[in-house]
Amino acid sequence: MNASRHVAVLLNQARICAHPDEGYEPLYGYIKAIEFFVDATSPEAACEVAYAVTNSEVTDLHCDPAYVDVVRTYREIAGFRFVTVDDMFEVDGHSFLCARFGFIRVPA
What we know:
By secondary structure, this protein is of the alpha+beta class. It has helices at about 45-55, 70-75; strands at about 5-10, 30-40, 90, 95-100, 105. It has one domain (about 5-105). Helices cover about 20% and strands about 30% of the residues. Strands 2-1-3-4-5 form a 5-stranded antiparallel β-sheet. The two termini are about 25 Å apart.
């Protein structure tokens, strides 16, 4: 059964693409990019939905069209990059690391 689940997207700052040769220093840790709710059967299923949302463009949705406003906010207003390996989702207070394949639950 689907439930409304709170998702926070945490981007790994080491992957923000800072260019040391241009005077930028690499950043460490995570930055909270956006929070929203998804309908999903489990926290892992919520990660899948959130991954599809954060890897969509308004003109190229990989998620349910119901999330188009979240996609628009994430892309146009915040200007954040696609979610990738080493980024994290927090679902209902539990952390999940984006792995090469799937998501790894991070112990509390």
